[in-house]
Amino acid sequence: MKLIELYIQEVTRRLPERQxxxxxxxxxxxxxxxxxxxxxxxxxKAVLSELGHPAKLASGYLDKPMHLIGPxxxxxxxxxxxxxxxxxxxxxxxAVTFSHVFSFSGEGEVVSSILSIIGDATWNSIxxxxxxxxxxxVTFAIVERxxxxxxxxxxxxxxxxxxxxxxxxxxxxxxxxxxxxxxLFGSLIWTAIWVAGYFNADNLxxxxxxxxxGLTLTTPLFNQTELLSFWPLxxxxxxxxxxxxxxxxxxxxxxxxxxxxxxFVHMGSLAVFILVFSNVTVFNPAFLDYFQERFGFxxxxxxxxxxxxxxxxxxxxxxxYQGIKxxxx
Length: 329
Prior knowledge:
This protein has helices spanning about 1-10, 15-35, 40-50, 55-60, 70-105, 110-145, 180-200, 225-230, 230-250, 255-275, 285-295, 300-325; strands spanning about 205-210, 215-220. It is mainly α.
């Protein structure tokens, strides 16, 4: 008898106060009906085992779910978390990095400045991820509790129950042709790095010397005014690269059309790179004088330029080849 009392107590304590007495009586009646005459403790244990865990039984008496996100919405909930949290974290990281890089004046110790930028960007990125997780979870918890359908079948991303017709909307993507989210985010981060470097080059790139405030920029590499005179072409390259990332995101896999678009973007970027950096006026005269005085071979800097073009070309050809190879699988 004691086991029965304890079981009823464990069930009813999970219920609203106004329901406990009635449900307790109903549950006691149910248990007694299930027990044989002259039952023993083993018979009681068998009946209680058949009724199941008190929490599960209590949830059957409740109008509201006892879980935060139930099976009906869990798949959509997890899918949205996987989609939105990385985007929020990446954009937060990029926004903070852009903000710091563009406001960087070149003064102060460069190593501590870089570490400060990375630390702030990482911390804000983690905060954005936690905020996104919290609000998505709260939204689904509210939806769960206001769902009056009393259905338990999981819903799809179209907010309806699954049918075989939904398979027609699912693209088949072979592993060999798939474009990973890591690849897309890597492209965004790389674009952000070189854009920040271009628009704030005179405060980032050049000759550094160790002084009283640590390692500081003394002679910028570029003439920022001349460098920024090419901004329309640079903006065009930015849009091409972002457009390519968006196209990859939408497709989710390599196709021949995407491979061709990839060729045009790489060739366009290489052409702008050559056009900008083959112009000697984009370099700071003081930097060239410094190089001439210290090393005596400023006239050979064009070899450095063509070496950079060669690296750019080899990298582009490698990426183009990989894109075509995956598209033909």
